């Protein structure tokens, strides 16, 4: 389904596979194999690159337009937290590692 959504949004933007591949810095053959569902488990990095070029959220690529997350608005406290993290110089990848470590720690502290 990810490939179907990529193709849908690519076509809505009237982009060729080549154009998307070039702008997202992803191999044309890989984009093509995603769209034909020959490759069905792309990395989050690929999804981020493609979604940015297509002008849609990662969540939309992963789950479609009807995702509940997309319909929820963030409260002020969450927005402030996100801005604080972004302004601190922490990369998205570093923040993801922190979240994963925190989940691991919580799970290990329970036992």
From TrEMBL:
What is this protein's record name?
A: XRE family transcriptional regulator of biofilm formation
The protein's UniProt keywords, in alphabetical order, are: DNA-binding
Which InterPro entries does the UniProt entry name for this protein? Cro/C1-type_HTH, Lambda_DNA-bd_dom_sf, SinR/SinI_dimer_dom, SinR/SinI_dimer_dom_sf, TransReg_Diox_bact_type
Can you list the GO cellular component terms from the UniProt entry? cytosol
Pfam family example for this protein? SinI
Enumerate the GO terms in the molecular function aspect: DNA binding; DNA-binding transcription factor activity; protein dimerization activity
According to the lineage, what is the superkingdom?
Bacteria
- Residue ranges of every copy of the HTH cro/C1-type domain listed in the record: 6-61
Sin domain ranges (all copies): 65-103
Q: Can you name the source organism?
A: Salirhabdus euzebyi
């Amino acid at each position: 389904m990810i490939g179907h959504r990529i193709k849908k949004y690519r076509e809505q933007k009237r982009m060729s596979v080549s154009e998307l591949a070039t702008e997202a810095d992803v191999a044309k053959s890989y984009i093509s194999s995603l769209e034909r569902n020959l490759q069905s488990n792309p990395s989050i990095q690929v999804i981020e690159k493609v979604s940015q070029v297509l002008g849609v959220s990662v969540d939309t690529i992963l789950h479609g337009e009807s995702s509940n997350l997309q319909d929820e608005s963030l409260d002020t406290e969450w927005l402030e937290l996100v801005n604080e993290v972004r302004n601190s110089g922490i990369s998205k990848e570093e923040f993801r590692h922190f979240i994963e470590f925190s989940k691991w720690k919580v799970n290990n502290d329970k036992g």
